[in-house]
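Input:
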Amino acid sequence: MTPEPAAKAVSLRETLRAADGPVTLLGYDPGSRPLAPGSKAKALKALASTGEELAAQQEMLYAGGASGDPRRVLLVLQGTDTSGKDGVVSHVVGQVGPAGVRITSFKKPTAEEAAHHFLWRIRRALPPAGLIGVFNRSHYEDVLVTRVHQSIDDAAWAERIADINAFERQLVESGTVLLKCFLHISYTEQRKRLLARLDDPTKYWKFNPADIDERAYWSDYQAAYAAAIAATSTEHAPWYIVPSDTKWYRNWAISQLLRDALLGMELSYPKADFDIEAARARLQPPF
Amino acid sequence: MTPEPAAKAVSLRETLRAADGPVTLLGYDPGSRPLAPGSKAKALKALASTGEELAAQQEMLYAGGASGDPRRVLLVLQGTDTSGKDGVVSHVVGQVGPAGVRITSFKKPTAEEAAHHFLWRIRRALPPAGLIGVFNRSHYEDVLVTRVHQSIDDAAWAERIADINAFERQLVESGTVLLKCFLHISYTEQRKRLLARLDDPTKYWKFNPADIDERAYWSDYQAAYAAAIAATSTEHAPWYIVPSDTKWYRNWAISQLLRDALLGMELSYPKADFDIEAARARLQPPF
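Output:
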């Protein structure tokens, strides 16, 4: 499988990367499909082929982890309800070997979690060396929901932002490649997806009437996301704003970003740390 | 996807289930392929189609777990080095959504683990409700390696066996469906697979010269497996002895066993616990 030309790959990263400085999400069209393959069919084909690359890269990452390489990957997925975080886990992350990934879905903190610093449960869920960790929601919830519902004041918010930037810098310094994706959908698309869940009995369990209550805070959430993204999009841990009204585009784009993140690690299989010929000699019949 | 006739499915379970009473592994041919599809090509096709059933069943299991159903599945994979545990994780478990599985590979206990009862680390790795847990090696290592290398005496071994039976009974009583598979390969097949790793630089990391040392204890391991299987194959948690010299047969057979275990749970999607019409009415434009 030959990787696509690096020029194009780099350019998707650059295209989706959050702009430096203040962010307004109104400037990012959730229905756009920058650099997309020419059609849905082509995107699905590209996704499958990127999947093979992802699987091959992940195997090398895992082999390295088993042999002392401390590096790992952490994919952070954020976005409003129905933005497609579960879909990315299933269609993108599902393309690599299940033993090589560790997925954590962060819900409302438990009593024990809430009694600790907000990064406590996050640190416990970090992937070990060699694995691809996936956070379905993350520490960013603690600067989003809280800001929208004003359960923390501006000073506490700023302190948490500083904590997050320090935490992510530590992660990167200790060998974690961080890939932070904001799945950006429109107000209209969310309505469509919520209504679709009501039309499908196999999706009722995903529906919570409280999600409708939260939808009333849409603009506040968009502003909170924009503020958090602007404050935490750093050189070592930039944010990517992924237009996500089109599901196949979202999956294709994130698979490309993840592939590029892995390629950037320049992984290779560990060399043998034992005498191959001696081992082969011992394994001759009748032994 | 129409499930295959139940008669055939039941019959694979019955065929591979460890016989009651003393077990000698010499009586089970690792190269046999009982009830296999007629060819490798047909088996791969059947595996893909069972994969779709597995994915559909797992989604229902997950939905149930998210809605208060306490049930879960635990697939225990045991077998000597190169027997194909990683292959099953990748080719069988890899067919379901990655968020729905929790895989734990048990290695040599850490100092902290060794300082606790041998089931301590096992209990910590149990899958939550709605998930399929996979143990790549398990609590059975503690009655195998220890017996072969005589680090525990007969009385301690018997005590551990009793602990395991009590533990597994508790698991089943609290809603876990246990599926215990012994991947049975031959002495010759292990040599072939170890030598193959030495021929493939992408597999060096999987090779450990200590595995050759352990191979010298082959007969002791077979006897230890037989004793453990005989002592822990219970009505609620039977062992399946899966002939594993043929990789496609092993994958096909375990996918069938897992599928049957899920079908046996008679899963269904949770009903809506909210007013669907009221939710739909709230979601009309312009809201």
